[in-house]
From TrEMBL:
It is an enzyme of class 3 (hydrolase). It comes from Qingshengfaniella alkalisoli. It catalyses: L-glutamine + H2O = L-glutamate + NH4(+). Keywords: Acetylation, Hydrolase. This is Glutaminase.
Amino acid sequence: MTRKITPKRLQEIADEITERIAGESERGVVADYIPELAKVDLNRFGIAILPVETEECIVAGDADVPFSIQSISKVFALTLALEKVGATLWSRVGREPSGDPFNSIVQLEYEKGIPRNPFINPGAIVLADVLMDNQGPDKAIEQILGLCQRLANDQSMRIDGDVAASEMKTGGRNRALAHFMAAEGNLRGDVEDVLKIYFHQCSIAMSCRQLAMAGRFLASAGHLSGGEDPTVTPERARRINALMMTCGQYDASGEFAFRIGIPAKSGVGGGILGIVPGIASVVAWCPGLDAKGNSLLATRAFEELVRTIGWSVFGPI
Ligand SMILES: NC(=O)CC[C@H](N)C(=O)O
């Protein structure tokens, strides 16, 4: 896949997609199990495309409006956890798709408190526990936010305190997952402290433009622009991409690979970060979700984009 395309053409495509999405009447449903997320306007849509070789981000629609990145934060938490403990991480969390919803409890009992992968909720709760070790929750939260700020080269991004409070209050399922893993010996820190990290990382607010920038290291074999030190090795970037491809959309990961064919990570805030290895990072955001908790129209936007340009890791379209 070596399809290069001019910024002008990319802009036209982004504008066309934005216009088409605006005309869609079926827009999915907001994640109302987190009450603060239910307040977001279903008509929002933004897209940002950031080619690896330029500083120029192609944007359309609400690409500069911050939204709750939710589970997309698991990509950054995984990057930090791997940096901290390396391959030993894999004794506490697996690398297989779960085929179950992101907050499912049932599989965790069969598999003795070892989550299938780092992108379902229990997997990310283990990552939070790893990050908390030796430093406590507040430092770990700072570290995750700090990585996002550094990658996006933007110190202005913040955690949305109202979303975090909303998650703390209504996070019964996540509490159940965390306590079960603690009972199985796969959570070492205090459960409420671990969940504090998890809820706060999910509540980081970023715009499509900021998130495309923050995710670009995965499209460029771990390298940052401007000659800074690489964030991760090329091998690690490839492996994070592999996990995004196989597990990034939970029990719709197979369908996403089938329809779109690039590594991607979704969040219940309606965002999707997609990686076109060697070519670009792309973010689309539209708050309404489908039945599996992935943005209905951001997925559609990705489908149109890759179909128009031929960006699939599985071969030309
Ligand atoms: N898929 C998601 O984005 C889920 C994240 C959300 N904070 C939760 O724990 O339920």
